[in-house]
Recover the amino acids of this structure.
């Protein structure tokens, strides 16, 4: 048996409110919150609804995303701030907008960087980085 | 009442430290104190005169609450009002506006505002060991590869701006070049001795695509401070007052990702308030000090402030000469891109430069034309919160 090198990149430190996101990610399900009072789709996870006319507290419910969306914007990063990414440069940091209308930060992986463009269709792929944490990343949709 | 603060307060003293790559052995409190002492002396005041203080929470990192009081004690100043202003790069302008309100509300007569920034890791205060420092938002950023400073966020703004409006580095480069020319005429600027060309910018290495190294600020150590007094008090002080004619903030988000079109910078709402309070419009502005963390920052702020239409900033920049000798003098001290960015003191130095131009104390980089009306902006986070202010000479009242 050979042991994998230890994962040396920053890991999430979930709070009580965000833990369900990481629990679902471990099961390869991408989830976001939706307000049962006003329907607002919410990401990042929180306890109260930020909807324009909503004062909902505890009204946000976890729902499954299709995991499909598009590249809202991206950058090819050549200079990482964290030493754990030193061997990865250049890598792609992106904002992806899911088809349900919410956005998240992620990486675009498994492609030639020249083939990425704003507006490109993408789908979630799962990176099981540690036994506890799985990160949602995205690849260009075939 | 939208016009309640128009001309009601002025900046009466300024002080700043030359930005340096590092200031070994100096922490943020010490750097702020030195800048503050310069500002108080420039005002012709004593420490005992300072009865109001607004300082930056950079001082608070890792040290719990009470940082304004500890800063006061550190300097031997004992005000009757002291508070923080947590507006990141927007804080220079925000502090001036907050101070204008304080002196007119009778909370203080002379308000000292300022910030210091240490860059030497040994001198930066750290959060307590084991403390939870991650916020709900960074939890969803850091695992995907943080970039140096805000480079990644502004790169995504620039990337999207390129896709929507087509302005690439060849056009953005002029921002860096014109500001560098100004810095070459300002001995306080960290890049005073290094001229650059557009080719230098285009050929500098890519930090985060599409932003090149010479489109990004260099973090520095430094400090900056100023003193605000009520207008009638200011009139009998040593320097020609720089009157606060109007201002406001636009606060949109805590981080770039989740809210709104990212190429729209939130300064627009602050600018509308500033111009409406002052009774002036963009065409009246004679000098601009536009917060320049990156080239793209300047372009979006110019558009949202109303100097040109959305998507046209690159062409506007090509059509104008932004040097201190030019038709649209901008970032006359060199801008943060070439003067240096000592954290939040970088934004503050754009306020003090505006004051210097109004006083006509710019020396070698003094704008030769009229400098009675100056527009200043600040920007915090990644287009998170931005501030706008009009400063004017007595002639603008």
């Amino acid at each position: 048996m050979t042991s994998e090198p230890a994962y040396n990149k920053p890991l999430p430190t979930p709070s009580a409110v965000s833990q369900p996101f990481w629990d679902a990610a471990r099961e390869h399900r991408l989830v976001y919150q939706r307000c049962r009072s006003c329907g607002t789709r919410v990401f990042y996870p929180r306890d109260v609804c930020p909807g324009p006319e909503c004062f909902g507290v505890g009204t946000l419910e976890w729902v499954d995303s299709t995991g499909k969306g598009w590249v809202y914007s991206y950058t090819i990063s050549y200079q990482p701030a964290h030493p754990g990414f030193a061997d990865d440069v250049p890598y792609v940091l992106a904002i992806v907008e899911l088809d349900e209308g919410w956005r998240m930060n992620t990486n675009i992986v498994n492609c030639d960087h020249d083939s990425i463009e704003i507006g490109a269709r993408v789908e979630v792929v799962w990176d099981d980085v540690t036994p506890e944490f799985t990160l949602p990343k995205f690849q260009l949709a075939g | 009442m939208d016009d309640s603060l128009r001309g009601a307060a002025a900046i009466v003293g300024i002080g700043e430290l030359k930005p340096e790559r590092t200031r070994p052995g100096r922490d943020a409190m010490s750097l702020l104190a030195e800048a503050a002492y310069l500002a108080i002396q420039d005002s012709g005041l004593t420490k005992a005169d300072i009865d109001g203080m607004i300082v930056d929470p950079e001082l608070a990192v890792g040290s719990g609450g009470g940082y304004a009081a500890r800063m006061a004690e550190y300097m031997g100043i004992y005000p009757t009002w002291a508070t923080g202003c947590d507006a990141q790069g927007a804080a220079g302008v925000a502090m001036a506006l907050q101070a204008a309100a304080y002196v007119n509300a009778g909370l203080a007569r002379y308000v000292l505002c300022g910030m210091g920034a240490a860059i030497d890791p040994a001198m930066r205060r750290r959060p307590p060991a084991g403390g939870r420092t991650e916020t709900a938002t960074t939890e969803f950023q850091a695992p995907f590869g943080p970039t140096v400073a805000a480079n990644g966020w502004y790169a995504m703004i620039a990337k999207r701006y390129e896709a929507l409006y087509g302005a690439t580095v060849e056009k953005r480069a002029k921002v860096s070049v014109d500001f560098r020319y100004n810095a070459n005429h300002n001995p306080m600027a960290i890049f005073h001795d290094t001229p650059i060309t557009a080719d230098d910018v285009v050929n500098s290495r890519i930090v985060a695509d599409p932003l090149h190294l010479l489109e990004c600020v260099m973090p520095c150590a430094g400090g900056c401070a100023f003193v605000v007094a009520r207008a009638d008090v200011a009139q009998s002080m040593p320097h020609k007052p720089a009157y606060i004619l109007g201002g406001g903030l636009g606060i949109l988000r805590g981080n770039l990702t989740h809210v709104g079109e990212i190429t729209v910078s939130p300064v627009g709402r602050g600018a509308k308030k500033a111009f409406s309070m002052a009774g002036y419009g963009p065409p009246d502005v004679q000098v601009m000090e536009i917060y320049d963390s990156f080239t793209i920052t300047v372009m979006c702020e110019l558009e949202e402030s109303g100097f040109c239409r959305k998507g046209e900033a690159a062409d506007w920049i090509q059509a104008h000469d932004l040097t201190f000798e030019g038709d649209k003098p901008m970032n006359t001290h060199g801008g943060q891109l070439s003067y240096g960015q000592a954290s939040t003191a970088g934004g503050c130095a754009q306020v003090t430069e505006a004051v210097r131009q109004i006083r006509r104390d710019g020396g070698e980089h003094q704008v030769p034309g009229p400098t009675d009306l100056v527009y200043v902006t600040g920007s915090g986070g990644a287009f998170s919160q931005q501030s706008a202010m009009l400063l004017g000479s007595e002639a603008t009242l």
